[in-house]
Design a protein that fits this description.
By secondary structure, this protein is mostly helical. The chain has five helices and no strands. It binds protoporphyrin IX containing FE. The site of protoporphyrin IX containing FE (HEM) has 21 residues, from α1, α2, α3 and α5.
């Protein structure tokens, strides 16, 4: 049972991260599209579907399955919560979830044609999930502490 849940945790993580890397990239291109143009309206549909259809459900699944794994870790009383790596991982996953919230807010701004950020801003934001992903995976697999 534990390994099945872990497999689905990793599948959910892949879907969440794929969306978290793709959405800010769409924002980079959306910045270049003229407001009211066909291109801009197409980006709005793509962004809404990506967020609602993939990123949101994948985040919920990642959290639920991850917390289940955490409670069923090796320590009979505290599960993996007794291990340092999980605490560090949770801090970074909360940061990732906060970024998710910001991306959802910016999507609404784009939908209302009131985006206030530059292409460069979204290019930089695009790197944040990559860095978080690398550190989180190392913590989960290597468990350095
Ligand atoms: C949402 C909160 C999360 C919680 C509570 C959580 C918790 C856990 C736990 C307890 C394990 C089991 C470790 C083991 O059996 O060795 C695990 C495995 C794993 N998690 Fe998460 N996780 C979360 C999110 C994430 C995210 C966002 C990523 C990647 C970006 C991630 C990547 C992994 C990987 C790659 C494994 C497999 C580790 C291995 O088997 O060696 N997790 N997670």
């Amino acid at each position: 049972m534990y390994l099945w849940i872990k497999a689905f945790h990793i599948i959910a993580v892949i879907a969440w991260m794929a969306g978290m890397l793709y959405l800010p990239r769409l924002y980079v291109y959306h910045c270049a599209a003229e407001k009211g143009s066909v291109q801009s309206e197409t980006f709005k549909v793509m962004e809404r579907r990506l967020l609602r259809g993939i990123i949101n459900p994948a985040m919920v699944a990642t959290w639920l399955l991850g917390l289940w794994l955490a409670w069923h870790g090796p320590d009979s009383r505290y599960g993996w919560f007794a291990s340092g790596w999980l605490g560090a991982k949770l801090v970074l996953v909360i940061a990732l979830s906060a970024l998710h919230g910001l991306l959802a807010k910016w999507r609404k701004d784009f939908a209302a044609d009131s985006n206030r950020h530059s292409q460069r801003f979204y290019r930089i934001i695009n790197e944040v999930p990559t860095v978080l992903l690398i550190v989180i995976v190392i913590l989960a697999v290597v468990k350095p502490f």
